[in-house]
């Protein structure tokens, strides 16, 4: 059995490192990795391993890793992929538990590379080793206790509190350069490549307990274990550490057509978005946004409220910042009489002493000091935004130092935007060196503050447990599914779909299948008029399109006529369709039409959809998604995300709908999705939600196995 935590401790805090496959050629990956370890002042012993060299970088080299006389904690393999398994086997033989495989030529190239990667995994499991890679940049730990740059990055980053995980090694080098220019430091920096063994999930759990890490950033190209990723992220977030993810692959070009509404609208990226929201992961659009938010978390306390003070030396940027703040849900703090008095006494008469505070274009550092101190002391202010535009008399560097000096006396966040580029560069450098978040645009500043504030709010929410319904009949559902599969069919006819839903306590109306006009009349009179009649056929999935649905039938004669009409329409629509009969069901009283759906996603498993129902669902696409199993909070958030939720609450004289019953229906569908993985797609469209207290009814359902 692997001890992941112990192995990863060896990876990040080794006493000894073997660089296996190094050489003397400067500018090559094998040599540069060894040189980076030495240049970073690693606090341990380094062993070069090179079959051809006696010394590398002035250090004695060993022909094989098995020749090293002392224990080795971490091995870094940079041999060609064709012989990596041999070197890895030797590492296992001498008890090395942590390995980084830098070499490419594995799963990413297909063919033999896939087999080479399988072999690597087998050896790792055989010896209980933990492997980062293959096909990765390497690992960096800035902690002074270790100081490892086990990568071929150009330089060691600054020490900081941001953990960075990336599937792409090339992106890592760009991120390191980006961060270096902005004095952004890292705690751990990990390129995990093909994740043949150690995955992003393992690394999330490790960083959750890492005292040096305050916030975790991640770049992903694929999600292979969606539920595992969500669970790990939730554990990290519960520990107070935000998780920010930049995931590529937003488009779904080439996706095959799906049979259900849910299947056609639940694109992989929509599901990914929903899953991240559900797990409270912050999804970022690009590198800039990711670091704009990350430095806010890393450098400043989480705001206690969304009330901010804006300090500026120019009216226009102050207004722009105010607009952006309000747009992102922030509020301008209302200054106390004491604050107003201080500002009035110490600022010029032409200054605006209300919020936003305009200290006027000729303001020097002393005016900024007055405004900053007054804003921080005001009890209604829980965050301060400092805007600066460069004038000929502006003391840019001094003002930056004043912001750093004053803000360090308060447990309230300060964000800055020194607008411009060349003239403000030195001031920005002062801010960044002092760990004051700086933003090129006020809009980015407001968005970052709002994101951090929302994280703080969500941290206080007590998650609700998933409700388990005991009144369901899994035996009936399993029997129906097995019978349909045994017959070689993929779809359940509506009568069978109704039986599945009824077994799970969903509000299916009274119904029965007739095989003749006379039998249809008897069923209709037993149910009571008015009724709905629908064709029942495995071959006719979209019944309305086939003219196979007739509503509001209120007499025996109409039943007989409708029966014949439906058969005729079905025959025209699909002459080869086998008609099992005509379904007669109770006509549902008027209500609001919504759609409930289920789709099984390759990465995240069962996904539940909610939205505005009826025939226009794919036109308006007012839908939201969550990954099952769901709790009540998940469902409430899911409903609230849609524009149609306002209709359900009651507008323009309409009474509120039965939200309690709607939530129950979604929870029951979630349980069905989890318990019966053979259901691939499911639509309840529409579910008719009546007024509060009057319940809801399934009007139509479709299930695909």
Plain-language structure description:
The strands form six sheets. The chain has a seven-stranded mixed β-sheet with strand order 9-8-11-10-12-13-14, sandwiched between helices. Strands 20, 25, 26, 27, 28, 29 and 30 form a seven-stranded antiparallel β-sheet that branches. Strands 2-1-5-6-7 form a five-stranded parallel β-sheet, sandwiched between helices. The protein is 39% helix and 20% strand. The protein is built from 24 helices and 30 strands. It is flat, with a radius of gyration of 32 Å. The model is unreliable at 253-259 (pLDDT under 50). With 705 residues, the chain is α/β, with parallel strands linked by helices. The protein has four domains: 4-213, Rossmann fold (3-Layer(aba) Sandwich); 303-460, Rossmann fold (3-Layer(aba) Sandwich); 510-587, Dna Ligase, domain 1, CATH 3.30.1490; 592-704, ATP-grasp fold, B domain (D-amino Acid Aminotransferase, Chain A, domain 1, 2-Layer Sandwich), CATH 3.30.470.20. Helix 10 (287-299) packs across helix 16 (442-460), helix 11 (315-327) packs parallel to helix 16 and helix 14 runs parallel beside helix 15 (425-433).
Helices and strands in order:
Blueprint: H1 4-12, E1 16-20, H2 29-39, E2 45-49, E3 55-56, E4 59-60, E5 74-77, H3 84-93, E6 98-101, H4 112-127, E7 130-132, E8 138-141, E9 148-151, E10 159-166, H5 169-181, E11 186-191, H6 200-208, E12 215-220, H7 226-238, E13 243-247, H8 261-265, H9 268-279, E14 282-283, H10 287-299, E15 307-312, H11 315-327, E16 331-332, H12 337-346, E17 357-358, H13 365-377, E18 384-388, H14 396-407, E19 414-418, H15 425-433, H16 442-460, H17 474-486, E20 491-492, H18 494-503, E21 511-514, H19 517-527, E22 531-536, E23 549-553, H20 556-573, E24 581-586, E25 592-601, E26 605-612, H21 617-620, E27 623-627, H22 632-640, H23 645-649, H24 659-675, E28 681-689, E29 696-698, E30 701-704
Parallel strand pairs: 1-2, 1-5, 5-6, 6-7, 10-11, 10-12, 12-13, 13-14, 15-16, 15-17, 15-18, 18-19
Antiparallel strand pairs: 3-4, 8-9, 8-11, 20-30, 21-24, 22-23, 22-24, 25-26, 25-28, 26-27, 28-29, 28-30
């Amino acid at each position: 059995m692997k001890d992941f935590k112990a192995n990863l401790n060896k990876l990040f805090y080794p006493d000894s490192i073997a660089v296996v496959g190094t050489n003397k050629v400067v500018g090559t990956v094998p040599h540069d990795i060894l040189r980076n370890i030495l240049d970073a002042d690693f606090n341990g012993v380094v062993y070069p391993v090179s079959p051809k060299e006696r010394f590398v970088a002035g250090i004695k080299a060993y022909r094989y890793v098995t020749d090293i006389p002392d224990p080795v904690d971490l091995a870094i393999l940079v041999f060609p992929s064709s012989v990596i398994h041999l070197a890895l086997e030797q590492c296992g033989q001498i008890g090395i538990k942590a390995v980084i495989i830098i070499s490419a030529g594995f799963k990413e190239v297909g063919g033999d590379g896939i087999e080479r990667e399988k072999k690597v995994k087998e050896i790792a499991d055989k010896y209980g080793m933990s492997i980062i890679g293959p096909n990765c940049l390497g690992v960096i730990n800035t902690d002074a206790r270790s100081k490892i740059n086990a990568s071929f990055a150009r330089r060691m980053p600054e020490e900081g509190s941001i953990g960075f995980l990336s599937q792409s090694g090339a992106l890592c080098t760009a991120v390191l350069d980006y961060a270096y220019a902005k004095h952004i430091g890292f705690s751990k920096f990990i390129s995990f490549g093909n994740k043949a063994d150690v995955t992003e999930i393992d690394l999330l759990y490790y960083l959750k307990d890492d005292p040096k890490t305050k916030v975790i950033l991640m770049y992903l190209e694929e999600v292979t274990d969606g539920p595992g990723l969500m669970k790990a992220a939730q554990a990290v977030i519960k520990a107070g550490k935000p998780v920010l993810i930049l995931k590529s692959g937003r488009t779904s070009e080439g996706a095959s057509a799906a049979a259900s509404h849910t299947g056609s609208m639940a694109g992989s990226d929509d599901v990914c978005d929903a899953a991240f929201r559900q797990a409270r992961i912050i999804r970022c659009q690009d590198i800039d946004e990711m670091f704009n938010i990350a430095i806010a978390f890393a450098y400043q306390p989480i705001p206690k409220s969304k009330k901010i003070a804006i300090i500026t030396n120019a009216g226009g940027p102050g207004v722009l910042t105010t607009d952006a703040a309000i747009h992102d849900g922030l509020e301008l703090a209302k200054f106390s009489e004491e604050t107003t008095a201080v500002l009035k006494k110490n600022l010029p008469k032409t200054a605006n002493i209300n919020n936003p505070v305009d200290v006027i274009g000729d303001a020097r550092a002393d005016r900024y000091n007055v405004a900053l101190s007054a804003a921080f002391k005001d009890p209604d202010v829980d965050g301060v935004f400092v805007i600066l535009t460069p004038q000929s008399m502006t003391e840019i560097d001094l003002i930056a130092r004043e912001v750093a000096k004053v803000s360090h006396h308060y447990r309230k966040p300060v964000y800055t935007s020194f607008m411009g580029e060349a003239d403000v560069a030195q001031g920005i450098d002062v801010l960044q060196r002092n760990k004051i978040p700086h933003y090129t645009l006020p809009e980015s500043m407001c968005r970052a503050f709002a994101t951090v504030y929302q994280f703080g709010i969500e941290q206080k929410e007590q998650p609700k447990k998933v409700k388990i319904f005991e009144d369901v009949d899994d035996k009936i559902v399993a029997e129906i599914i097995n019978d349909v599969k045994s017959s070689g069919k993929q779809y359940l006819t509506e009568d069978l779909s109704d039986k599945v839903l009824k077994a799970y306590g969903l509000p299916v109306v009274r119904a029965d299948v007739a095989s003749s006009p006379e039998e249809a009349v008897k069923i209709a009179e037993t149910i009571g008029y008015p009724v709905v009649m629908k064709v029942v056929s495995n071959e006719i999935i979209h019944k309305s399109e086939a003219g196979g649905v007739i509503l509001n039938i209120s007499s025996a004669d109409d039943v007989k006529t409708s029966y014949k009409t439906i058969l005729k329409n079905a025959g025209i629509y699909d002459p080869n369709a086998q008609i099992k009969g005509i379904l007669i069901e109770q006509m549902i009283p008027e209500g609001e039409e919504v759609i409930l759906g289920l789709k099984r996603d390759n990465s995240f498993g069962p996904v539940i959809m909610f939205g505005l129902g009826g025939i226009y669902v794919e036109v308006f696409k007012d839908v939201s998604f969550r990954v099952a199993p769901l709790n009540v909070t998940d469902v409430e958030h899911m409903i609230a995300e849609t524009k149609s939720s306002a209709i359900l609450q009651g507008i323009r004289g309409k009474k509120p709908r039965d939200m309690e019953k709607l939530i129950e229906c979604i929870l029951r569908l979630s349980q069905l999705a989890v318990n019966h993985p053979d259901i691939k797609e499911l639509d309840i469209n529409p579910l008719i939600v009546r007024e509060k207290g009057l319940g809801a009814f399934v009007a139509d359902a479709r299930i695909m196995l």
